[in-house]
Specification:
Largest sheet: 7 strands, mixed
CATH superfamily: Oxidoreductase, molybdopterin-binding domain
Number of strands: 12
Radius of gyration: 16 Å
Structural class: mainly beta
CATH architecture: Alpha-Beta Complex
Number of domains: 1
Helix content: 10-25%
Length: 199
């Protein structure tokens, strides 16, 4: 695949993590259903421990350079969907546009427009080469149920870390549990070591 970032996990001999089953469908999972949101009202803000806080409206975000990522997608509820093709803006590029992160930054808290979806990530995972804010999936625009107009995608972690309906990225000097972590999910979420739950 020319000009496509290939996620390292897709190169494994066995691509299904422990306790997972492969699906060709893309199940819909969230806490309270999608928000009432369309692209005309969407903005994305990078805030706190970046060198320059930035905010993008929909037209500005569409004008940014895009990447394509080929990855697998693993849900904590035990399904895995292989060979996804995402297109959107690299998280690394977004941080570059904010002038980089401050030295004390260790984590990111992603916020969704539904009012409840927040989730934490180490800055290294957030800045992985295959992490992006996705606009399309398998060549089609994201649907609202799957996080449109834009969602975070971090392939190396369980799918709840890939926050739907993304509205803000808050850069922090310490780890802070989001909605999913406060309600029982693991603070990190590595599918290969089954970091499913916090107890």
């Amino acid at each position: 695949m020319d000009d496509v970032i290939i996620s390292p996990d897709t190169r494994r001999a066995n691509r299904i993590p422990p306790g997972q089953s492969q699906t060709v469908k893309w199940p819909v999972l969230d806490a309270f259903g999608p928000p009432d949101l369309d692209a005309s009202r969407w903005t994305l803000t990078l805030t706190r421990l970046v060198n320059q806080e930035v905010s993008f409206d929909w037209e500005q975000f569409l004008a940014l350079p895009r990447v394509k990522v080929h990855s697998d997608f693993h849900c904590v509820t035990r399904w895995s969907r292989l060979d996804n093709l995402w297109e959107g803006v690299s998280t690394r590029h977004l941080v570059e546009l904010a002038g980089g992160v401050k030295p004390e930054c260790t984590h990111v808290l992603a916020h969704g427009y539904d009012g409840s979806w927040t989730t934490n990530l180490p800055i290294g995972d957030f800045l992985a080469a295959d992490a992006l804010v996705a606009l399309t999936h398998d060549g089609e625009p994201l649907t609202l149920e799957h996080g449109a107009p834009a969602r975070l995608v971090v392939p190396l972690l369980y799918a709840w870390k890939s926050a739907k309906w993304l509205r803000a990225l808050e850069f922090l000097s310490a780890d802070r549990a989001g909605f999913w972590e406060r309600n029982g999910y693991h603070m990190h979420g590595d599918p290969w070591t089954e970091e499913r739950f916090g107890w």
